[in-house]
Structure of UDP-glucose 6-dehydrogenase:
Amino acid sequence: MNLTIIGAGYVGLVTAAVFAKLGNEVWVVEIDNDKLKKLSCGEIPFYEPGLGELITKNTSAGKLRFTKSYKEAILGSEIIFVCVGTPSKNGKVDLSYVYSATKSVAENLKNPATIVIKSTVPPGINSKIEKWMKRFTKVSFDLASVPEFLREGKALEDSLHPYRVVIGVEKKSVAKKLLQLHKKIPGKRLVCNSASAQMIKYASNAYLPTKISFANSISILCDKFGAKVEDVMKGVGMDKRIGPDFLAAGLGYGGSCFPKDISALLHLSKKAGYNFSILKAVEKTNRKQVDYFVKKVVRLCGGSVKDKILVVLGLSFKPDTSDIRNARSLLVIEELQEKGAKIRACDPVAISEAQKVIKEVKFFGDPYEAMKGVGALILVTEWEQYKNLDFVKIKKLLKSPIVIDGWNVYNRKRLEKLGFVYEGIGK
Ligand code: UGA
């Protein structure tokens, strides 16, 4: 099929690359000149394993094209995906990009098309968007909602092998067309109305953090009662009704999605007159987990971190991404700096992003280099390369052999045997 993707952000680029790989002719519209230039040279503006290669392959094959022009892209497109950002503005969803993109689509529509909203938008908004678009076109179109459920760092895997494809439509004929487009993609199908599809996205992005905050609350109790949170959550997750995923206790969730979608849902609930108290507690618990961790660091450093040099391993909000939005590292570093600590920080790919927002930190690509003469090692993002460090070497480098593990990745017995003071979370 001939497709257009509006917006070369995270979701847009992945969607475009995947549909091109599956044999469709795909245009991507991006209005940012710099981004467009880079994309045309095969450069992608963020780190995502495998995506650059897939884009280059399909661009060279002529299956994937980038343009600034809505007119050029959508002229022959049967399906147009709106993949622009919906950032948070004081807790509210900022829909300005959705409205400007759909206006441009309407103004350039020459033939009937299906317009699919992939951006995360408030449930029920499609009727408003439809009215808005009709102000700019007489050409008939259908609106649908197909939310995305991909994770950063695993975007291709999640898009090519998703758990489910949710198709939110008001007409059977549109469902048929979208089911056809997704035919080569496995996973369960759910066809529902567009408001339900949009709610599924918010509900999923609220439920997963609920599991995480629950696990984190249990981790604090585990610390107090001598239980191991990993074993506890493993046991809990063995119950099929609960499931094993998203029960990893640690420093809490970050990223560009969960925090943003939780505040949007809280805002929408408030507007609708509903007090979503569970979700408020999820948010609060997540914030408190960082304070809990920092208190641990201070305690293990002998009651004060003033003028102590500490190494923070990991800056991105999770491994395999350069994204530092709402990363726990930002909060941990800020709190430790407020308490007078001097921070050295390492990350395999996120240093240049972090340099834009973190001040007075020394950055190191090589963790061993950073560890020379420091007071403690603090694991904040569980990158694979930090899981397999040489602790015999580290013992000789650190001034005080203290390891505080935000994700329970290290083996306590082994570290203690080597002479380290070690603490994880709920361990
Ligand atoms: C999340 C969802 O998982 C995707 O399904 C969704 O499409 C995406 O948001 C989105 O709305 O765009 P993402 O933010 O990329 O994906 O990352 P996740 O892997 O879900 O992790 C989110 C945060 O939760 C990370 O900070 C991670 O460290 C934390 N987490 C995850 C835990 O603290 N414990 C866990 O057990 C799992």
